[in-house]
Amino acid sequence: MALLLGVDTGGTYTDAVLIRDEVEVIASAKALTTRGDLAIGIGSAVGEVLLQSGCDAAEISMAALSTTLATNALVEGQGGQIALIYIGFEATDLDRHGLKEALKGDPALVVAGGHNHAGGEVTALDFLSLKSFLETEAAEVSGFAVASLFATRNPAHELAAASLIAEVTGKPVTCSHQLSARLNGPKRALTAVLNARLIGMIDRLIGRAQDRLGELGITGPMMVVRGDGALMSAQQARARPIETILSGPAASLVGARWLTGVDHALVSDIGGTTTDVALIRDGKPAIDPAGARVGDFRTMVEAVAMRTTGLGGDSQVHVRASGLQGGVVLGPRRVVPISLMAVEAAEVVHGALDRQLNAPVVGEYDGRFLRAVPGLPAAGIGPRERALLERIGTEVHPLGTILRNRMDQGALNRLLDRGLVQVAGITPSDASHLLGRVQVWDRLAAEKALTLFARRRIGSGEPLAPDAQTLAQMIVDQLTEQTSLALLETAFFEDGADFGLPPEGAAKDQGADRARDLARHVLTQRGLAAHRGILALNAAINVDVVGLGASAPSYYPAVGERLKCRMLLPQHAGVANAIGAVVGRVTMRRSGSVTCPAEGKFRVHLESGLQDFSSSDAALQVLEQALQGQARGDAELAGAQDIHIDISRDIRTATVEARDVFVEAMVTVEASGRPRVAKG
After folding, report:
1. Are the beta carbons of 32 and 41 closer than 8 angstroms?
2. What is the pLDDT of residue 98?
3. N vs C: which end of the chain shows fewer Cβ within 10 Å?
4. With pLDDT > 90 as the criterion, what percentage of the chain qualifies?
5. Contacts by 568-571, CB closer than 8 A, 24 or more apart
6. Contacts of 65 (CB under 8 A, 6+ apart)
7. CA dihedral defined by 392, 314, 298, 329, rounded to 10 degrees?
8. H helical segments located in 127-221
């Protein structure tokens, strides 16, 4: 008998599930995610499933972890302070693909060096400038990203820079060519920046998870879910945390398929921070060929074709103050629900809410609270941020007692970006408590906060809502609307018809933007409302929708009604991510290229150097052998067994004088197998 443990660490809850022989769920449990020390929440959830099942921890053959931590961090703009070494590019290239935005003011060095398309050196790497930069900037950053011009054709300068950085600073380094074999330097640099920013966060998560499982007596190997739904070893995830973006959503797709057996359906997974929507086609989630997009960032990471929206049960509620009608908008930032904060600091929360309710007018910061997240390193923050942290201390405070001026607000935003503090405010979770849909935290605190928020004024000068109950329903209705739009966008994007979408070959993000417009188009919305006039309009989602997440039963029946589709809410939907984590396969991919720098010369671009051949067949054979060895080695390192190898070639040719001429080839080798489990 194989007993497998799946764990999913989300923004609000940590889930654990025990599965016997990959066919039967024998126990599942949830615990609050503990941001300051994630091992506490992991230990609580795992301890509960062990208690429920009566199993001995030593019987567990393998543990697998999926997490939305990296996804949430990118959506919310969090992560460590890093530095970018940008070799051979122009300084103006920092503005491309959101690279400057991703740096968030962190230092970058644009330095001479780089190679050409054929892998030849263009300019020698400027070691003196690099060393000088390291000696002045290294103390303030947690890691480095290195991206060099045409590094996928010749990574020598990235490797040399990484070696010097390790020697001078001893801090972790991410090289862009190790994350993607494709061209597009600025986009590859963006991926490296995000990876470097996530390293400390994911390393802490995996390290503490391993420690806690060991303390519980679990000795089986630990795996981590990648963004494409496959498994990799904990060691590999620590080195390439960017590959765990969309880890939780990818695991949910694997779990949805396992729970329902659907071959063709949309899957919508609502968590505390995000809603993730994807299509299962022919029983498999599609891989996004343009790279994973999370929030505002398009990366070069292979991941499921997933649309991630900053919308969840704990999304911050904003007043739509413009216009006479008013209303609310949700997200994208997550806040701690007032009903939860009141469980942890009842006297502070209720005392402040009572005082604010008795005041003649609603203050700017009323109904919001603040606390520091204990246990996180605060290196690299400025003096104003440090002073604000000291003022907060270890207690929960009404937000208005901490913020004294607009500069404090800016410092708070920077601390939020670093994940060092948390703000509490009203959320859909609070609305659900008041409406009686959920009863796990402090309903009275939610009612007080919603009453206070309802008094805020809209453009007409009237209150936002007449009472807390009305506002709660407005918030839930808005969550239904925003969820429906997310599903419609995916449906338009994935449908076979073009609907006026950009033609194939156009930028993928153009299609995403057009799908967003079509989902909101007046004809789509009138069709959903079954308009009947001189025209009769109908619109609906024409496939099943699988609703996942702990709050899916509360919110998703209304979404199914809105979109006129069958909504599937399977048993164990609340722990689908944890299930998907443990029933997946190990899959490793390696890619490389062969180019033709001159007639009759075929060049293989390897990390170890360039090799030239007189025939394309010989070059391709050498490349395939090298990639097979690398992919198989990665799969074995991840703990795979019974490894299967699949090779694909993408060969580009041009017609010259009525004959086909080789231009370039991209080879991808995939090695996959079931994870090796310890014998029980």
Report:
1. yes
2. 73
3. N
4. 58
5. 568/260, 568/262, 568/265, 568/544, 570/256, 570/259, 570/260, 570/546, 571/259
6. 7, 8, 9, 205, 206, 209, 222, 223, 224, 225, 234, 581
7. -100
8. 127-137, 156-169, 185-215
Strand partners, 653: 662
The 3-state DSSP composition of the chain as helix, strand, coil percent (nearest 5) reads 40, 25, 30
**Residue 390 burial (CB < 10 Å; 0-12/13-18/19+)?**
exposed
What is the reported pTM? 0.74
Closest CA to 10 of 251, 359, 328, 361: 251
CA distances in angstroms from 341 to 53, 274, 392, listed in the order given: 31, 20, 16
* Cα–Cα dist 193/97, whole Å: 12
- 3-state secondary structure labels for all residues of 637-676: HCCEEEEEEEEEEEEEEEEECCEEEEEEEEEEEEEEEEEC
* Integer angstrom CA distances of residue 588 from 566, 576, 673: 36, 23, 9
C-beta of residue 294 within 8 angstroms of C-beta of residue 512? no
How many whole angstroms separate alpha carbon 600 and alpha carbon 118?
14
Alpha-carbon radius of gyration of the chain: 26
Coil, helix or strand at residue 520:
helix
Q: Tell me the pLDDT tens digit for each residue of 259-296.
A: 999 999 999 999 888 898 999 988 888 777 777 776 66
pLDDT band for 674, please (50, 70, 90 cuts): confident
Q: Three-state DSSP class for 592?
A: strand
pLDDT given at position 659: 81
- Type of residue found at 160: A
- Distance CA(385)–CA(407), nearest Å, equals 10
Among the listed residues 190, 212, 200, the one whose alpha carbon sits nearest the alpha carbon of residue 73: 200
Residues 470-526: tens digit of each pLDDT: 999 999 999 999 999 999 999 998 887 878 766 555 555 566 778 889 999 999 999
Q: State the amino acid at position 641 in one-letter form.
A: Q
Which residue stretches of 395-467 are H helix? 399-402, 406-417, 428-434, 443-454
SS3 of residue 116 by DSSP: coil
Token representation of residue 112: 């001479």
Cβ-contact 488, 524 below 8 angstroms: yes
Residue 527 and residue 518 in contact, taking contact as beta carbons nearer than 8 Å: no
Q: Which residue has the tokens 């070959």?
A: 505
How many other β-carbons are positioned within 10 Å of the β-carbon of residue 351? Answer: 12
- Any idea what DSSP says for residue 404? -
Check whether the bond before 332 is cis (ω within 30° of 0). Answer: yes
Q: Confirm if 247 and 232 have CB atoms less than 8 A apart.
A: no
Q: How confident is the model at residue 145 (pLDDT cuts 50, 70, 90)?
A: very high
Overall average pLDDT of the 176-200 stretch: 86
Cβ pair 85, 158 in contact under 8 A: no
Question: DSSP string of 198-209?
Answer: HHHHHHHHHHHH
Sequence-ordered list of residues with C-beta below 8 angstroms from that of 619, at least 6 positions apart, any chain? 594, 602, 603, 604, 611, 613
Q: Beta strands 640-656 and 609-613: pairing type?
A: unpaired
CA 154 to mean position of chain CA atoms: 30
Q: What is the Cα–Cα distance from 292 to 299, expressed in whole angstroms?
A: 5
How far is 203 from 251, CA to CA, in rounded Å? 20
